[in-house]
């Protein structure tokens, strides 16, 4: 019987509980032992500002989503208010194919998906599409990077940065993480966002936890955050998806 590449390897998944399934499944499929310790959770924002925006969507030329969470929380509020996205007056731009897949659940599809699944890629793609004076609505979390708003504003657009969810640390995260790191032999710790990195670093800083694991980050933003927090990043895929992150871990385990 042929052994699987991740047999004997233990991988820590730090994604939010409701988003960890795909990564966990792919790792287990390759023989890995997976421990889930969610280091982020999400709370919807229901504000008068959001209600006002949803009632005036026809005033915007572009609707931008930087994550699947942004799509879910925004579109659920649109549904709750019994409104819809104006089909002809507004275009939709998203970061990443997974974000577009969630968008399709609401019978919508992105007009623009940048090749690089980061804010910088989106800015570059939009630069050739938007006109001076265009109104752009960005529906995202409360910890979104400022670069998107700043650079689109520099291009002459009016940018409305709308928080549609908050990122928080789950209640039991600290005790669970410290326990796992001190009692289990963890080979890889995976990070799929800067928030998971920041929360991990806050918890382990000064805690005397074992750190003899490799760090795998999904993309350059999480990688930069990890390095800023003093972590050595061993693996970052060239394409910033869960599938490619798992592929990197497999190749590393094989010694490729």
UniProtKB/TrEMBL annotation:
Example GO biological process: uroporphyrinogen III biosynthetic process
> Per the UniProt record, which EC number(s) apply here?
4.2.1.75
Say if the entry is tagged with keyword NAD: no
Q: Where is the Tetrapyrrole biosynthesis uroporphyrinogen III synthase domain?
A: 22-247
Span-the-membrane segments of this chain are none
Q: Name one GO molecular function term.
A: uroporphyrinogen-III synthase activity
- Tell me the keywords, alphabetical order: Lyase
PANTHER family tied to this protein: BLR5956 PROTEIN (PTHR40082:SF1)
- In its UniProt entry, what is this protein called? Uroporphyrinogen-III synthase
UniProt source species: Halalkalibacter krulwichiae
